[in-house]
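[agent] plan:
  1. take the single chain provided in the ticket
  2. run structure prediction with default settings
  3. attach structure tokens to the ticket
  4. add a short note for the reviewer (M.T.)
[agent] executing step 1
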Amino acid sequence: MSKTGWRTYRRPDDKSGGHGVGWSPIIPYAFSVRQDWEEVPVSIADLGGTEIDLRFASSKEGRIFVIVAPVRRFADAIDDDARIEQIGPPEKVINAFGPEVIGENVEGKVMSMSVAEHGGRTYYQFELEPPHCLITATAAGNRLYLFNVTGSGLQWKRHYPDLKRIADSFRIV
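[agent] step 2 finished; step 3 output follows
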């Protein structure tokens, strides 16, 4: 479903980012964005540090970043074909990882929570305020993927339907 002005970003198979010794390659992911969104260099000094795999931004609409974290950081019993359900229910996942995404405790900030399934994989989706952000979480391989779409108050007000569409489009390929 390609609306004019939208494109699909797919993480290149050969993009570096092994995140430590002994890691398998990152399983590619994809999402839709408007044409004017651009990839932004990732710095290890960023919030989320070395686990941020990708950043995108639009001066008009907002920002996106993808955190790819080792699942074993959260549960030793998970094998190399992790499913988000093994990490826990949506409440546990957002309470554990939300602070990594927004830089503070998420208590009282979760406006909505939902569970979706696409291609046999479960995705947890959260909307937080403040700050305004949409988080889509899933697990694949030996990693947890946190896809975050955020914007200022004004960006949120003006572009919420597009930001929601971006958040809803995140998939492991």
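[agent] step 4 note for reviewer: The longest strand covers residues 62-70.
[agent] ticket updated
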